[in-house]
Amino acid sequence: MTSLSESARAALRRAAETPLSYGVRVYLAPGDNGSSRVLVTLGEAHLKLEHASKLGRDVLEQFELRGVETFQTRQVFAGRLLGFLIHAPRAILRALSFGLVKDSSITDAKQLPFGYTVEVERAKSMPFGLHVGSAYLTAFFAVVWTNFVLLALRELLPNVPPALDAILGVLGVAGVLFELHFVMLVPAVLLRRFSWSWLLHPAVGILTFRDTLMAEGTIRMLADHPTISSAIVVMGRAHLPGFERELVDKHGFRRIDL
Predict the structure, then answer these.
(1) Per-residue pLDDT averaged across 156-172, rounded?
(2) How far is CA 249 from CA 205, 241, 245, in A?
C-alpha cells in the first residue's frame, strides 16, 4: 500500500481498535496501469465521546481527499422533516451531556481547512425507493415523537382534555401498526443485496439506495481528482457491507488488509 503513509496506517489502526465507534475497510481501486490507488472507508457511530472523536479527526487529517455521507434532504421527499426528526434528538443529547458527547466525524471532515471534502450522495435525481423510505421513516418518527411529547404533556396538565386522549389513541394504533410491520424489516435487511428488498420494508431503502449513491459518488470523486493517490469515505457503520458490495461487485475494487 505505497499510497498510504505510515502515519495514515497508524491512525487507521488506532481507530480500528475502537470497534464501538469505528469500522475500517481498505480497498485497491481498479486500473490497468498498475497503480496502487487506495480507498479507505471509515464507518462510524455518528455520536461518540471525546477520545473516539479525536481518533476520527486524526484519521481524517491524513487524507487530502475525503468523501462523506450526507443525506440529501432537499432532493428527497420529506427529507428536511426526516433530517430534523433524526438530528434534533442527537443535538438534545449532546446538549444534555454538556459537551461530553461529540458530533459526527462527517462534520469534522467538512470543517478541515485543507484538501477536498465531497458529499458523495449528491446526484441529479434520487431513486423512487429512497423517497418511499424517507416518507415511511418520517411518518414513523413523527408518530413516536408526537406520542412522547403528548404523553409528557398529559402528565403535566391538571385537566386532560378529551381531544388529547383521542389523539393519543390514534397515535397508539398507528404505533402498533408500525410495530407489526417492523417484523418485515428483518427479512428486508437479510435480503438487502437484492434491489427489491425495500418492497418488504421501505426503511431498508434508506440504506440500500444510499449505498449505491455513495459508491457512484465515490467513483466520480476519484475521477475528478486523478492525481490524489489515496482517499477516504466516511459513513455510518451500517452502510459498510452494502457500500463494499457496490465497490467490489459493480466497480472492480478489491478489499485488502490494512
Answers:
(1) 93
(2) 19, 12, 6
